[in-house]
Amino acid sequence: MAPEEALGEILQVSLGCVTPFALVNESARHVSLFLDQGFKTEDFCFFHPLSNDMSIAIKACDLDKFLKSIGKEPSYVDLEANPTVGKDQPPDLAGLVPSDAIVLQDPPEKSVSSGPTEKHASGDNKSSVAAAKTVKPSNNAQKVKEKPASSVHQLSSFTDPGHFVEEILDKTSAIVLSEITEDAIKQHGEHLGAVLSDSIRKRLSLDLKNLAIIYKNTAYTEGFHAATHRQRKHI
Amino acid sequence: MEGTKAAEEEEEQVVNPWEVSAKDGGKIDYDKLIDKFGCQRLDQTLIDRVQRLTSRPPHVFLRRGVFFAHRDLNEVLDAYERGDKFYLYTGRGPSSEALHLGHLVPFMFTKYLQDAFKVPLVIQLTDDEKCMWKNISVEESQRLARENAKDIIACGFDISRTFIFSDFDYVGGAFYKNMVKVGKCVTYNKVVGIFGFTGEDHIGKVSFPPVQAVPSFPSSFPHLFSGKDDLRCLIPCAIDQDPYFRMTRDVAPRIGYHKPALIESLFFPALQGETGKMSASDPNSAIYVTDSGKDIKNKINKYAFSGGQDSIENHRKYGANLEVDIPIKYLGFFLEDDAELEYIRTEYGAGRMLTGEVKKRLIEVLTELVERHRRARAAVTDEPFFCLRRRLPTLLNVFSTPGPLLPRENPFGFALASTS
């Protein structure tokens, strides 16, 4: 993921204004352009000009003409794809980045790529890649900043015992607090404990079991991963 | 007399793995289907037996009659009582990227069976079948299989007891040997009779049925079940898959294997009603696991077929028609609490509760389900673990002697996020 500063420095546009037209700037000389292949089949595509207070409609073939005129060759790829990237499979878009592309420093926060929100090519986040998207780039820039924090937290419940336990306790506390009301005390009196206990079981059982199975699967996977990596070293 | 009989037969409902349609665009007649196929009704005594054996309440799909038919379930339970375990086999044809709730039904039920009986499970992704029937490329079908596998894993299967495979990846070796054995036992005429192939159908289709048959035999999975040829298999599936397994059950004794047992479900109704068709091209005919809370609310409110009366006065007077009401049916699938469902049915049927309230409750239930699924799916990343040919460790206690792990490079397969 490109850091925010890159937007201003390299593309010379403001937040929420990622656009292929920004490549007209000299500072964007080394930026590779990846466009989603969906653009090719559309009659008209909308992009922001160099500011995001309006949008321009342009045909895909005319966009190509423009890009060629400034010496840029666009690559049309499937930005929705989520290919495996690993030891034996390098990022599939790496080959499309020209060798004189500048390498940016890794941004400080870690962003976890989770399906629906992130539509950037997964893979090596060290080369600077500007990916243009359909109609609303402004939403995307903001969304991408917010999402990683919460999705990392959600996923850490499955890997970190501390977070796992916290989540269970949070859910249980929420139920306890919601069910101990004046009315409930009046109604059940000394049996409130048993009633509450049943209620917790009923309401949480399914949820917690689902959480636990994902936790187990994750732990198993990590163990398997560790074991197979050890084996590989010996070969 | 003969003329009318022929005419009747032409109007019969059609149920096979590639087509499901009711007579005259009406509802599917499940009693007739059970008769025609020759399977058994799943009655209350069986459900009670399952409850006794597993020491836990039976799954909501059993209680509500979603899984309503079976073959030889009693035999499997007899064996289980004697201490002879069985394994589960289910599958999916990855024809589309987006799964809807109807697709999840067999997997939700299979997960329950795995947890309740503590048995191993194999899941087949028939990417080759979809490549042939849907005429998509090999690569595309494999890609869809990968994506679908993530949703399947998100249903919460136990990785230590589950093996997921795609046909393109796995067919070969012992699996293929069984395919040939099965193939030798089924004539061309027979397979035409069962599946309705014609002279125009290509030979890929005609030779496909053994692929779906042989996961019922433990020897197809030597890395899981070696030495245990008499292990029984139980197959949870929708009732339209019955033809494959009728064929398999016919062949099994001839090649020295147990007949697989089946436990079969109804079809999941489309949003527009029983007579509507759920179709991939109409996103409003079903709730997808990728739908947002807003989408779900919108689809249920706008498209879910209501059995309520057309005006509030009539509704209060006559009550709702529960037979055709889709929200009630969906609640029957997904609302856990029997007492609450009964209450809603009574009140709505009497006209005291309005359609809007029923839909509101349904939206809550579905949103929670979809959200839980989405979260679980997000935890699945791209590593080959469910699909590696590894010995399933719990089997070590029950079956063969311990052996080395058998990792293998594999093109897809998933493990779970590790943030280290």
Can you walk through the features of this model?
The complex is a heterodimer of chains A (235) and B (420). By secondary structure, chain A is mainly alpha-helical. Chain A is 47% helix and 8% strand. Chain A contains seven helices and five strands. Chain A has helices at residues 4-11, 38-41, 60-69, 137-156, 161-179, 182-188, 192-234, and strands at 32-36, 45-47, 56-58, 75-77, 129-132. A three-stranded parallel beta sheet of chain A has the order 4-1-5. Chain A has a two-stranded antiparallel sheet with strand order 2-3. In chain A, strand 2 (45-47) and strand 3 form a beta hairpin. The longest helix of chain A has 43 residues, at 192-234. Chain A is elongated and about 80 Å long. The relative contact order of chain A is 0.12. Chain B has 420 residues and is of the alpha/beta class. Chain B folds into two domains: 26-265, Rossmann fold (3-Layer(aba) Sandwich), CATH 3.40.50.620; 283-378, Tyrosyl-Transfer RNA Synthetase, CATH 1.10.240.10. Chain B is 47% helix and 11% strand. Chain B has helices at residues 2-10, 30-37, 44-54, 60-63, 73-82, 101-117, 127-133, 138-153, 167-170, 173-184, 188-195, 203-206, 209-213, 222-225, 242-251, 293-303, 312-318, 326-334, 338-350, 355-378, 393-398; strands at residues 14-16, 19-21, 40-41, 67-71, 86-92, 121-125, 162-166, 232-238, 261-265, 380-381, 415-416. In chain B, the strands form three sheets. In chain B, strands 3-4-9-8-5-6-7 form a seven-stranded mixed beta sheet, sandwiched between helices. Chain B has a two-stranded antiparallel sheet with strand order 1-2. Chain B has a two-stranded antiparallel sheet with strand order 10-11. The longest helix of chain B has 24 residues, at 355-378. Chain B is globular and about 65 Å long. The model of chain B is unreliable at 1-10 and 394-420 (pLDDT under 50). The interface between A and B is medium-sized, with 36 and 30 residues.
